[in-house]
Amino acid sequence: MDQKKNKEVTYLECEKQYIFYLLIFAGGVFGGYTFVMRGGVFCNAQTANLVMLAIHLGQGDFKGAAYYFLPFLAYLSGTMISEALAFRIKKMKLMRWDTLLVGIEAIVTFALGFIPSQAPDQICQISLNFLAAMQFNTFRQAEGIGMATTFITNHVRQFGSNIVKYLHHHRPDSRSRFTRHGIMILSFVSGAAVCSGLCLLIKDYAIWTATAVEIFVFIRLLTADRTYEKGLLFMKPRGH
Question: Angle CA(226)–CA(129)–CA(52) in degrees, nearest 5?
Answer without folding.
Answer: 160
